[in-house]
Amino acid sequence: MDLRPVIKKLHELEETDNPETRSHGIYYRTLGGRKISAYSSNPRDSVLGEQAVDNALSGIRKHGGLGHIGNFYLPLSSVDQTKAKSLGGKVHTIDNHFHFEGKRIFLNCRRS
Which pairs with CB-CB distance under 8 Å and at least 24 residues apart come from 14-17? Predict the structure, then answer.
């Protein structure tokens, strides 16, 4: 399962009025192999919120950047809490890592 598009989509949705998660950390790789990452000051806050950081992450995403690591939290509302509980415990993939533990989703893509 290729999780790179998932990281990009969750980041994109967080920039809208209908986010599905709150990012604590986002890490992209450019097509040229460069790396950029940003993390919030604490897990309760989004990585988004400072214009320079937001512009850098969005620019990389919009110009072919590949999602590499994403650290996201959910649920965002009481309705989502019920849905999240129905997902159960941990979920893992083989080549990439996908952990779901309660309110935290950690996506790690180990591809070159």
Answer: 14/46, 14/48, 15/48, 15/54, 15/58
Q: What is the amino acid identity at position 50? A: E
Task: Give me the amino acid identity at 102.
Answer: G
Coil, strand or helix at 56 = helix
Averaged pLDDT for residues 47-64: 95
What pTM was estimated for this model as a whole? 0.74
Among the listed residues 37, 19, 20, the one whose alpha carbon sits nearest the alpha carbon of residue 28:
37
CB neighbours of 111 closer than 8 A, spacing ≥ 6?
Answer: 4, 95, 96
39 forms bridges with which residues in the sheet?
Answer: 25
- Token pair 């604490």 is found at 42
d(CA 56, CA 79): 32
